[in-house]
Amino acid sequence: MTYRIMTVCTGNICRSPLAEYALREAVETSDLAGQVEITSAGTTGWERGNPIDPRAGALLREHGIDPAGHRARRMDREELQRADLVLALDHDHVGPIREELGAERAERTLHMVRDFAPEPVEDTGIRDPWYGDESDFELAWEQIAEAVDGILEHVRAERRQGQDAREGARR
Question: Which of 24, 115, 128, 149 is an active site residue?
């Protein structure tokens, strides 16, 4: 059974694609390869159809990741509902995502990316680097990258829990 993750920022050209590609890379080199689907979207359609921000694209290429196929899109209610884990990149994304998911589903699936940092952080938001320079993109990448292992561990735990529940139902 495929586990679905969706990362969400404002326009889907900076933070959420950085998180999507970082997670894809980590999943493909882990025991979860072939078992997890990762997508990204924006809370708005402002950038719909646009490629990744050139600064975000350059940063990904520096890490050996090719984002050439990325095109910005707005989040879709049905896709959000199918997601097992929805990752907001900043606090202002939570409200629009919660509205699409509904309170009960959001309670189960919605988290901030930095909720999964190895040590608790005072502010779980990742600020929009679009307004800054390359150093702001580097900071966003570092904040995302530090959470990747925790996200993968969360996915493993959720998959184990789901498998245990399915096995219990068969007994």
Answer: 128
Instruction: Identify the pLDDT of residue 162.
Output: 82
What is the reported pTM?
0.96
Per-residue tokens: 129: 């680097």
**Is 128 an active-site residue?**
yes
Of the candidates 66, 71, 19, the one whose C-alpha atom is nearest the C-alpha of residue 45 is 71
pLDDT tens, position by position, 130-160: 999 999 999 999 999 999 999 999 999 999 9
Which residue type does 131 have?
Y
**Cα(165)–Cα(170) distance, integer angstroms:** 9
Q: Which residue has the tokens 């219990």?
A: 168
Which domain does 126 fall in, by range? 3-170
Residue 171's pLDDT band (cuts 50, 70, 90): low
pLDDT of residue 92: 98
**Catalytic pick from 9, 53, 73, 90?**
9
CATH number, domain with residue 9: 3.40.50.2300
Residue 123's identity, in one-letter code, is D
Question: Could you give the CA distance from residue 49 to residue 12 in angstroms, rounded to a whole number?
Answer: 10
Contact 107, 95 (CB under 8 A): no
